[in-house]
TrEMBL record:
Pfam families: ADH_Fe_C, Fe-ADH. The keyword Oxidoreductase applies. This is Alcohol dehydrogenase. Keywords: Oxidoreductase. Residues 3-159 form the Alcohol dehydrogenase iron-type/glycerol dehydrogenase GldA domain. One of its GO terms (molecular function) is metal ion binding. Signal peptide: none annotated.
Length: 343
């Protein structure tokens, strides 16, 4: 169950305008350096805050695969600014960072388990993929560990205002990576030790929505609002699914691949998905792929190969990355024992 109140429509920002006065009198807008301005979301948000006499600061230093030190830097700057709630405008990286900032602004270490609630978070997504706009997870890059780490605290946005048209400004290769991330969420969450009937229902809905939005992968195809809405819904459904049962080994492998090889998250996940599916329950795997409109693993491999290839890795790198995967805890998500050699 996600407690987030979701508005998904072309007039989502109008809903934000109507509701924002109830959130508090002072806010911090957390964003990156691109999509918030390109989409007009930052301007619309700022205008609504001004017209409702809500004071605000803007922190726009969030990068893809957000750094723990950036989160801590933000909290240090605005700790004494009387912030009552936080607004995240951007993709999954921005929303993940904002969740951690919601803890840090209250003087709570986001990497340590907390019993106190974080500041309220409002999400205004400008991308689809991670599902962070609807679930509890926050993933940060921790340079001292040379990998990405999930914070051990839940932070659901209280409200999410999602205009799928905002996705239109994203470069197509980035959209492709996000598309594959949603596939991985829907599929991996259906193969973990925590898989349940309700989780599986959301995963199937996500895969069905993706099937109708497949044309977004092809750079030659027109981007329509309906396809963007299908994509956004798929990301939300898959985000709810991982909220129930989490992700599995492909995500664990993706973290060092993204950190060391600078490969975007969705591509880093999907390049190992098919190998993972070969050690999973064949009947369940075929059912999931069929819901996506894919016949079998071989067809999925051909699809992935059109967009991404595995990077070259030395034996030393393979051992280094495997150690990180083993320490990530993702192997516990798989129903059967998986050896170091298999990874």
């Amino acid at each position: 169950h996600s407690p987030t109140t979701l508005f998904i429509a072309q007039d989502a920002m109008q809903k934000f305008h109507e509701n924002c006065k109830a959130f508090g009198k002072a806010t911090l807008i957390v964003t990156g350096r691109g999509s918030a301005m390109k989409t007009g979301a930052l301007q619309q948000c700022s205008d609504s805050l001004r017209s409702n006499n809500i004071s605000f600061h803007i922190f726009s230093e969030i990068t893809p695969n957000p750094l723990l030190q950036t989160v801590q830097q933000c909290a240090k700057i605005y700790m004494k600014s009387g912030i009552e709630f936080v607004i995240a405008i951007g993709g999954g990286s921005v929303i993940d960072a904002a969740k951690a900032i919601c803890f840090e602004l209250k003087g709570l270490n986001c990497l340590e388990p907390q019993t106190e609630s974080p500041l309220p978070l409002i999400a205004i997504p400008t991308a689809a993929g991670t599902g962070s706009e609807i679930n509890q997870y926050s993933i940060l890059t921790v340079t001292s560990k040379q990998t990405k780490v999930g914070i051990p605290n839940k932070c659901y946005p209280t409200h999410t205002y999602f205009n799928p048209d905002f996705i239109r400004t994203i470069p197509r290769n980035q959209m492709q990576s996000m598309f594959f991330d949603v596939i991985c969420h829907a599929v991996e969450s259906s193969l973990t030790v925590k898989t349940s009937d309700i989780q599986l229902e959301y995963s199937i809905m996500a895969l069905n929505e993706l099937q109708t939005a497949f044309s977004l992968l092809n750079e030659q195809n027109e981007i329509t609002y309906q396809k963007l809405e299908n994509f956004a819904l798929a990301a939300i459904y898959a985000g709810i699914a991982i909220g129930y049962s989490g992700t599995s080994i492909p995500h664990g492998i993706s973290y060092p691949i993204t950190y060391f090889k600078n490969i975007s998250h969705g591509f880093a996940c999907v390049m190992f998905l098919c190998d993972y599916l070969k050690i999973c329950d064949k009947k369940r795997v075929n059912m999931l792929l069929n819901e996506l409109g894919i016949i079998d693993i071989q067809e999925m491999e051909r699809l992935v190969a059109k967009y991404i290839q595995k990077p070259q890795m030395s034996e030393e790198e393979k051992h280094q990355y495997t150690k990180i995967v083993l320490e990530s805890g993702k192997l516990k998500q798989h129903p059967d024992e998986v050896s170091q050699e298999v990874i």
